[in-house]
Amino acid sequence: MFTKRRQSGATLVEMAFVMPVFLLVLLALVEFGFMFFVTLTMQYAVREGARYAITGQKNLDPNAASQQRYAAVIQKIRDSSFGMYEKVGPVISVNGTSYKSESYSNAMFGGAGSIIVLKLDCTWTVTTPLISRVFTDGKYRFAVAATMRNEVFE
């Protein structure tokens, strides 16, 4: 009976040593899974944005008074990103030229028949301490892109 109490105490001490490591590994797996999810979600969003861009439409621009093609394409990417667009803070590049929000224009997506390469450079802040040391400044940086040819439009 005396040995049984000692063993339960030893089990508790062993669990105290193993549990933090187990939880850290579990959180790391969840974090990697979420990073994979964010990457795939943004890939889907950029593909949907490029598919919308090649049509030349601008009906998705939230500003109904003066609809702009670039604003409609960005809105399509936002809508398709399931809320991740704002969290990853993407930098938009079209055909190798990076654009900041103040330099957006309708010409950035090209004219009818031209090929566009729409690329988003994204940054995700890693929250798990063990994994954040693997990435520079604790940030996971990734790029997603889609290449398509514009349809004939006016």
Can you walk me through this structure?
Keywords: Membrane, Transmembrane, Transmembrane helix. It comes from Pseudoduganella lutea. The chain crosses the membrane at residues 12-38. The chain is of the alpha+beta class and 154 residues long. The protein has one domain (4-150). The chain is built from 4 helices and 4 strands; from the N terminus they run αααβββαβ. It has helices at 2-53, 69-80, 84-88, 129-132; strands at residues 91-94, 97-99, 115-125, 139-149. Strands 2-1-3-4 form a 4-stranded antiparallel β-sheet, covered by helices on one side. A hairpin with a 2-residue loop joins β1 (91-94) and β2 (97-99). α1 runs antiparallel to α2. It is elongated. The mean pLDDT is 89.
Q: Report the helical percentage.
A: 40-55%
- Report the major sheet: 4 strands, antiparallel
Mean pLDDT: 89
Q: Give me the side-by-side strand order of the main sheet.
A: 2-1-3-4
Along the chain, the helix and strand elements come as HHHEEEHE
Q: What's the number of helices?
A: 4
Beta-strand proportion: 15-25%
Structural class: alpha+beta
Shape: elongated
Number of DSSP strands? Answer: 4
| Unreliable stretches | none
Counting structural domains, the number is 1
Cα separation of the termini: 88 Å
Report the C-alpha radius of gyration, rounded.
Answer: 23 Å
Q: Give the oligomeric state of the chains in this entry, treating copies of one chain as homo and distinct chains as hetero.
A: single chain
Keywords: Membrane, Transmembrane, Transmembrane helix
Domain TadE-like: 9-51
Transmembrane segments: 12-38
Pfam family, one: TadE
